[in-house]
Amino acid sequence: MSTTAPDWWGDPLGDAVAAYDAEQERRRELRARRGPREATVLASVLRLLKRRGVLHWRQQVGVFLTPGGVKIHVGTIGMPDIIAVVAGRVIGIECKARHGRQSPAQRKFKERFEAAGGRYIIARAAADVEKLLEGEDRHEI
């Protein structure tokens, strides 16, 4: 009795590995078309601000449950992801993926923030914040 598989049986393990590799490639291409995720944009903006020595902080917003089931409200609904102070100006930075949209609460917060004299931007890449910082450093508002 032969221990090798017949020719018509193919290579099941090799076929499975090839199918897995093809699926992973398809997903990489899809992610590349979508652009960076919001978390990636947020991390790159935070690194940029730290590298530039800009006073900034990340504000979490939401409702969290304690182990005992008590709701804890954190932050103000609609608040931007990052608050920064550059050249005496307060800047709200909302990080979004390429096709991400603001919620109604975020739009309302933006209106109130700008009416109070703050500067608010939607950053889809760290380069958006870099451009803003260059303008703010030169006081070209």
* Separate helix tally: 4
CATH architectural arrangement: 3-Layer(aba) Sandwich
Main β sheet profile? 4 strands, mixed
CATH topology: Trna Endonuclease, Chain: A, domain 1
The radius of gyration computed from the alpha-carbon positions, rounded to a whole number of angstroms, is: 24 Å
Number of strands: 6
Q: Report how far the terminal alpha carbons are from each other.
A: 83 Å
Mean pLDDT across all amino acids: 87
Q: Could you list the spans in which at least 5 consecutive residues all have pLDDT below 50?
A: none
User: What share of the residues lie within helices?
Assistant: 40-55%
Query: What is the highest CATH level, the class?
Result: Alpha Beta
Number of domains: 1
Detailed description of the structure:
This protein has helices at residues 12-34, 38-52, 104-115, 126-137; strands at residues 55-58, 62-65, 71-74, 82-86, 89-95, 119-123. The chain is an alpha+beta fold. It has a single domain, classed as 3-Layer(aba) Sandwich (Trna Endonuclease, Chain: A, domain 1). The protein has a four-stranded mixed sheet. α2 packs parallel to α4 (126-137). The protein is elongated. The termini are far apart.
